[in-house]
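Support request, please re-run this one:
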Amino acid sequence: MQTKLRKIKRRKIFSEELRRQAVKEYEKGELTVLEISKSYQACRASIYRWINKYSQFEKQDIQIVEKKMSNTKKIKELEDKVKELERIIGVKQINIDFLEKMMEIAKEEYDIDIKKTTTRNITVV
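Re-run finished. Output below.
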């Protein structure tokens, strides 16, 4: 005879103070529901119940909309990207200036023309 063993899930009980703290973090926009559920190890449904029960906005019939990425975060990322691209352009410009100077020195010192210039007389018939 084979018996089936089930794992008993333990139910977590959170204090009212902890619940209110989580709701305050949500209302301030510090954390999203998903982040709160991960940090407190509670299911999202429980977090939503806490918000319905303890939220000041819920009592005033104000809706809170969570954005995946705020505009300030997007702006910061774009500014960082612009800085990185400007840095890369600066490095490339230094390389170009260096090579031009080397070609100039080669022309003056060794009378070698490194620049590729094409001067062909093309006649159209």
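The mean pLDDT is 82. The radius of gyration is 33 Å.
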